[in-house]
Amino acid sequence: MKNIYDFTATNSNGEDVSLREYEGKPMIIVNTASKCGFTPQFKELQELYEEYKDQGLVVLGFPSDQFNDQEFADMKDTMEFCQLNYGVSFPMFKKINVKGDQAHPLFEYLVSQKKGLLTEDIKWNFTKFLVDPDGKVVKRYAPQSSPKKIEDDLLKYI
Fold first, then answer.
1. 4-157: CATH architecture
2. Which of the residues 1, 36, 82, 88 has the least number of beta carbons within 10 Å of its own beta carbon?
3. Domain ranges across the chain
4. Which residues contact 157 (CB under 8 A, 6 or more apart)?
5. What span, in angstroms and rounded, lies between the C-alpha atoms of 143 and 140?
6. CB neighbours (10 Å) of residue 50?
7. CA count, 13 A, side-chain hemisphere, 154
8. What is the pLDDT of residues 111-144, one digit of tens each?
9. Phi-psi region at 14: left, alpha or beta (left = phi > 0; alpha = psi -120 to 50)
10. Are 150 and 47 in contact (CB under 8 A)?
C-alpha cells in the first residue's frame, strides 16, 4: 500500500515535487478555487501557515476547476490572484482534477483514507485533509468548515 510520501505533484512553477519533501511535518492538503464562495478561506489557511510554519506545518494548495469552472485557465492568474488578495505564500500546485477518472493519484489516495459524510468523492472546493507528521491522513474537513477549526486537531501534531 502506498503512503502519502510516495506521491509527486507539479508545483505552480511546473516543477515536480515529491511529497517526501514534507516528511515529518504536519500537512493540510486542500483543493482550492479562486472564484468560489469559499475562496476567502485562503485567508485563514495563510494565517494557520504563518502561525505554525516554524513548527513544521505545510499547507499544500491544489487548484481545481471541476466545480462550476471556478478557477482561472492560466496558473499565472491563479497565483497572482492568491498572492494579491490573500497573501498566499504556502506551496501551490498546478491545476488538477480531484475526482473522477482523471483524478490526481494523490487525491484518489486522500479520499480512500478518509471518506466524506455521504460519499468518498470530493464534493466541492476547499475540502481539506490533515496529515500527521508520519504521513497518516488523520482527518477530513468539509468545504464549509473554517480552516480555523483545524487548529485544535493540528496542535496535536505540532
1. 3-Layer(aba) Sandwich (3.40)
2. 1
3. 4-157
4. 26, 130, 132, 133, 138
5. 10
6. 14
7. 25
8. 999 876 556 778 899 999 999 999 999 999 999 9
9. left
10. no
Residue % of the chain over a pLDDT of 70: 97
Comparing 52 with 118, the larger pLDDT belongs to 52
CA gap 40, 82 in Å, rounded:
10
Mean pLDDT of the chain: 93
Residues classed as catalytic: 36
* Three-class secondary structure of residue 113 per DSSP: helix
Q: pLDDT by residue (tens digit) across 67-125?
A: 888 998 898 999 999 999 999 999 999 999 999 999 999 999 999 998 765 567 788 99
**φ, ψ (nearest 5 deg) of residue 55:** -95, 5
